[in-house]
Amino acid sequence: MGTMLKVSLSVFRSYWRVVLLMVFFFAVSVFALLILNGYRNGTMHMFQALDEAYLVVHEKDTIGEFYGSRISPEIGQQLLAAGCSRAVPAIHSATGTAGRNYQFVLGLDLTQYKDVQSFHLLAGRALGVGDDPQNAMVGRVVAERDGLSVGSQVELRGRYFNVVGIFQTQGFEDNQVWISLPAAQKLLGWGSDVSYFLVPDEGVLQAGQDFVDNTYISQRGENMVTATHEYLNVLDYFSTIVFITGLGTAFAFGSLIFRLGAIQKYELAILRALGFSRCLISLNFIFQAGFIFMAGFAIALPAALIFPHLYKLNVFDVVLRPELGISDIMTIFGILASMAALSVAIPLAWFNRSNISNLLRSE
């Protein structure tokens, strides 16, 4: 075994440029697989979360939680009269045109929003009853994208709001600016109208039913899935690309090991002629494949973890962030290791079936 290890190391020293190129090529393939799988997970987490605890009452034939709905505040009174324990109003819209001026805005009922909206405060404080109408909270993504901090100002429709807090929900809300409901109504010129009402799913109302005055009842989160159909198309592309990348990575690894075996076929044929067993010869392939696999993965993993901090993927003015957990990394590692083992078997089978005299023949 020690002899085979020395042979493998001698091959690395003799063909170190080729080995480095193989490690780099494999690392690029693994990086693509990790980062695409991360974006797929992040997109699914952002847009495919339904909240079974609350229903949304919004204008019919609109995607109320996202954009387009505008209903009378009297709907809230009618919801309470119908037996709902509470009806929490909100405004969700977007301001600006594109790029840095484009902002998703959520107008909140400051007396009730903390009961229906979970978030983690990263800096500053939360909006509260009696706050200045020009105060705002911004999501983590907005703060990072626009370089905002507590004490900064965020522009909405040519008006400036003071940032008093930065929050994180690990969902789509991180792309939003939160202001008070009256401030949002004034900003949009809506008077006392709102986008929708949130009501507890207590069995009084049912998702999928019409309500009064051209309003409709949806499960909370359902509108977001509908509104972001284009994002889900991107998700489908990610899924397909991840699958193709996985197959391509396995093929690339097999090709690299086959090429390395072809380079050293003369030396290995001599060892066979000297009486070294096929099992020992196989250890040479396994060691070299293991080195390339581990080195490539060790380069690709840190790169995939650092990449989101260097580049923000902005799709239709929503920043998508990859999510790579330990379980995801271990799963990808296991799948690639299995594929790598299968890839090693190909050059092994080729070498073991080759005639020694043919391998020793000069090219």
List the helices and strands and how they pair.
Elements: H1 2-14, H2 16-47, E1 51-59, H3 74-81, E2 88-95, E3 103-108, H4 113-116, E4 120-124, E5 135-139, H5 140-146, E6 153-156, E7 159-168, E8 176-180, H6 181-188, E9 196-200, E10 215-220, H7 222-227, H8 229-263, H9 265-273, H10 278-310, E11 313-315, E12 318-320, H11 326-353, H12 356-360
Parallel strand pairs: 3-8, 5-7
Antiparallel strand pairs: 1-9, 1-10, 2-3, 2-9, 4-7, 5-8, 6-7, 11-12
Helix pairs in contact: 1-2, 1-10, 2-8, 2-10, 8-11, 10-11
Uncertain parts: none
User: Major beta sheet, specifics?
Assistant: 10 strands, mixed
**Average pLDDT, all residues:** 80
Anisotropy-based shape: elongated
N-to-C series of helices and strands: HHEHEEHEEHEEEHEEHHHHEEHH
Strand content: 15-25%
What's the total helix number?
12
Helix content: 40-55%
* Backbone structural class: alpha+beta
Cα(first) to Cα(last) distance is 29 Å
Strand element count: 12
Computed CA radius of gyration, to the nearest angstrom = 29 Å
